[in-house]
Design goal:
Elements (H helix, E strand, L loop, with lengths): L1 H36 L4 H4 L4 H5 L2 H23 L2 H4 L4 H15 L5 H18 L3
Helix pairs in contact: 1-4, 1-6, 6-7
């Protein structure tokens, strides 16, 4: 019985990590698309100017990937406690921050890097005792 519960938790962790990976891909694609679009103001997203933004190819594909991630997230929510799985999504923040440094040449200060290490430690503490 204990082995069955461990297998269930591991499969949920894989689903959540898939959600995080898809979230990372969606974020990176949307950022690439917004680099193509340029600066957008709040009033732009509440006007007809939003349509060219949403249908920019990278932004659009990024949103589609987010939809798939959301559907997988619903599966994870139905199988495990939120207070266990939600912090695992933080692994996506770690990967996004690192990849944005290399793909978009964004800054990654020492303080941000230390924050990433703290997130890594928190995720580790959550999954250490499965």
């Amino acid at each position: 019985m204990r082995e069955k519960m461990r297998f269930k938790k591991m499969s949920v962790i894989l689903i959540v990590l898939s959600c995080a990976a898809l979230g990372v891909a969606g974020q990176l694609l949307m950022k690439k698309g917004m680099n193509n679009v340029g600066v957008v103001n709040i009033k732009d997203v509440f006007s007809l100017k939003v349509f060219p933004i949403l249908f920019e190819k990278y932004v659009f594909v990024g949103f589609l990937i987010y939809v798939v991630a959301s559907l997988l997230w619903l599966v994870a929510l139905s199988q495990e406690e939120l207070n266990f799985i939600y912090p695992l999504i933080a692994s996506g923040y770690i990967i996004t921050a690192i990849l944005s440094k290399f793909l978009f040449n964004e800054s990654l200060s020492m303080f941000r890097f230390l924050g990433i290490l703290l997130i890594c430690g928190g995720v580790y503490l959550i999954v250490i005792k499965i």
